[in-house]
Amino acid sequence: MKYFGKKLFTLIMTLFLVSVAAFLAFQIIPGDVVTSILGTEATPEREEQLREELGLNKPPVVRYFSWVGDVLKGDLGVSYRYSKNMNEMMPVKELVGDKLPVTLWLAAVSLVFIIVVSIPLGVLWARSASRATDKLGHFLDAALGVITQTTMAIPSFFLGILVTYLFGILFKFFTPGGYISYKEDFWGFLGYLLFPALSIALPKIAMTARFLRNSMLTELKSDYVRTAYSKGCTRRRVLYGHVLRNAMMPVVTFLGMIVAEIVAGSIVIEQVFGLPGIGRLLISSISTRDFPVVEILILYITFVVIFVYFLVDILYRIIDPRISEK
Amino acid sequence: MIRIENLSVAFDGTEVVKNVSLELKEGEILGVVGESGSGKSVTALTLMGLVSETARLTSGRILFEDVVLREAGKPLDKELYRKYRGDYMSMVFQEPMTSLNPTQRVGRQVEEVLKLHTGLQKEEIKARVLETFEAVGLRNAEKVYGSYPHELSGGMRQRVMIAMAIILHPDLVVADEPTTALDVTIQNQIVELLRDINTKEQNAMLFITHDLNLARRICNRVVVMKDGCVVEQGDTEEIFQHPKQEYTRRLIEAVPSRMKKRVSVMERPAAGGGAESNGMSGTGSEQNSGSANRTVLEVRDLSVFYRDGGNSLFSAKKKHCVVEGADFEIYRGESLGLVGESGCGKTSLSKAILGMNKDITGEVVHHTTRPQMIFQDPYSSLNPTKTIGWLLQEPMRAACALDKSLSMTKADMEAAAYDMLHRVGMEDKYFDRKPSQLSGGQRQRVSIGQALIMHPGFLVADEPVSALDVTIQAQIMELMQKLQQEMKLSYLFISHDINVVYHMCDRIMVMKDGKIIETGETEEIFRNPKMDYTKLLLCNS
User: Which of A173, B352, B438, B496 has the most CB atoms at less than 10 Å from its CB?
Assistant: First the structure.
C-alpha cells in the first residue's frame, strides 16, 4: 500500500513538473498565437480583442493556475486554433479524443511485436551462441549479429518507407495511405496498424534480442546453472527452467525504457503512413502555439509512459522475489 | 568403486590435470587438497562431467563401478552422464548463495532432482523433500520448502544444497570446498553433517579443500595435488605425520596452527614479558617515556550506526547500531587481532577508525599520521589499468595534492616506489607491469607497499591473507611481521581465521553482534578463554 502511495506521488509530481515545463517553454520560445491566427496584417485593435477573448492578457502565473484548475475539473479547454464552426470554439477533448487512441494502439501493437518476436529470437540466439563446439551455432550467432546490427542502424522513418514500398507497393499486402477508423472496424483498423508498427518495432526487436542474448550468456556462466546440470537437467531444461527467468530481469527494465521511445517513434511513423494519430496534431499545434492542445497531448504521453514504467516495476517484482523484500 | 585412471585434461592445449589416478571406495571420504590452480576442482568437475566444453580429455578414463563414464578420445556421452548425475553421483558446491537459482523456491529446486530421475507423484515428491530437509537438520522444513534462497542463511542454504545432493542416496558425493564460504561455527556443523551422512549412507565422498586442518579432521585418505599432478596420496594421519614429499611438508608447515611456536615482534614495556622484543633493542628510551607516547590509537566508547530505508521520502530512516560501545587502544609496534564471524561489525569498526564512516558516536584518537588499510581481495582492490609503479606512487601524488608544502619531484616518487618494491620483496622488473600479470601473493605485496609508502605508523589489515593460498599466506604473514619490525608498525589485524590471528597478533579482541566481548593477551585467550562464545570459536577451528 505504501508502495502504491509512493508511486502515485511520483506520478502527480512528474505530471506537474512536465506541465510547468511545457508552459514555460511556451513563454520562452518566440512566436505568438495571435499573430499566427490573424496574420501579420491585422490591426492592433483586433489583436488586442483576440487576446482578451483567449485570456492571454492575464499574467502567466494566473493563466497557468486557472488552466490547472479547469483541467482538474475535467474541462480541458478549447483550442486556440481550431473551431467547430463559425461561432463555436473547438474543445480540446474532442480534438484529441479520436486521435489519441490511434497513437496508443500503434504503440501497443509495436510493443506486442517487440515482445513476441524478440524473446524467442534472443533465446534462439543465446542457444546458438552458447554452443562452443557447434558449427551451425557459430554461423547462426554471426548471422544474427550482422542482421540485428543492420536493423538497428536504420532509422525507423526510413524503415517505414521501405516497408511501404516492399509490402504496400510490391506485395500489395496493404494499401499505402489507406486507413479504417477504429470506430467502424476495429480489426481492420488493427490490420492497418501492423506495418507501421513493424517499422517501429524492427530496430527495437534487434536491440532487445541482442540484450536478451547477452543477458542469457551471462546467466549461463552462473553457479546455479552448474548446479542444475549436476542434478541431471537437460540443456533445454536449464535454459527454459532456470536461465530464462533470471535473464529476463535486465530485459524487462530495458523494455520499460524503450516504451517512451516507441511513443515518440509512433508520432514520426504516423506521418510516414498517413495515420490520423496525434503526431500531426502535435506538430501543427506546436508551430501555431496552440497551447491548450500541446499541454494536454504532452500530459497524456507523460502519463502513458509513467504508467508503463509502473507496470514494468510490478513485473520486475514478480520475476525477482528479492526485490519485494527491501 | 569409482576409479579415475591416468586422467589428463587440457584447456586450449595446456594441460591443467596431468595423469591423475584416484580410487574411491564405499563409505570412504577421500580428501583432495592443494592450492588454487592445482587442478583439484577441474578433476572433480571432469568426474562429474561438468567441466566446460572447451576442456579436452587427453588421456585416461573414468570408471563408475564397471561402467566407463568417460574415456579419452571419445566425446562426452551427455545422455549417460545425465542419468548418473543427481541419481548415482551428485555435487555440493562452494558458494551456497550463487549455487541456488535466486528466482526459484528452494523446495522446487530440490524437487527437480526427483522429477528428473523418478516417476513419483507430486505428494510423494513433496513428502520426500520435507523428509530430506529434516534429515539434513533443517528445522521447520515446511517453511524452508517455500522460501527463496535469499531468505535463508548461508548455513541453511548449504544444508539445502546437501539435501539436493543426497535426496536420491547417490553412491558418490563430490563436495567442492563446501564450507569455505561459511563462518567457522557453521563450518563445523556442515562438516559434521557431511560426516554423519557418509557414515549413515556408506557412500563415497570426494572432499575437495584447500584447508588442511579440515581435511585432516574429516578424511580417511588424502590426495595432495600440485600443478595438476598428484604429489602424494595415502592415509590421512600417515600423510600429516610423515609426509614423504617436500611439497607436502611445505604445505603442512605453512598452515598456521596452534601447535607451532608463535613469533612476536611487539615492543613490550619493561614490566611485561620483554623477552620477545627481539630486534627492537634501540627503543629503550621510548619504552620508559610512559604509556601515553606508546599509544597509537585510542577508541573510546565508539558506536557505529547505519541507516535503513535509503530512499523513503516520509518515514524516518531506521538507525541500526552495528558496533556498540567499543573501547580499546593499540600500542606502538603491537598487532591487535580482531576476530568474529561475518556480520559481527568488524569491518564497520575498522572503517569508523579510518574515518570512512561518519555516522558514529564516541571518540577515535590517532597518535600517528595517516593510518592506512590493507584489503582482503588483491584482485579487485588494485586498478587493473595502471602499472605497479604508478599504483605505488599514487598515495604520494594524492598527499602532494592535499598538502602543497609536501613537494616531491617525480624522481623522488619513483625512487620511493622502487624502494618500497624492494621492501615488500619484489624485483625492479615488476615496476612497469600491470596487476593482471601478477600472482595473488604479489598483488597483496603491492597493496601492502601502497599502504606503507607514506610511512604510516598504524595499519588496518582487513582479512589480508584470507584470499590467498596457504603457502602464500605464510609468506605474506612473514612479510607483514618483517615490515612491522623494520618500520615500527602497529596493526589492527582483522580475520575470521583464529589460527592466523594466533600467529600474527599480540593481543586479541573477540567481537560478537557488534560488541567486543573479550580482550586479552593472545596466549591468555587461547589458554583460558572466559566467554562461551570465544570457547566455541576456538574449538571449532
Answer: B352
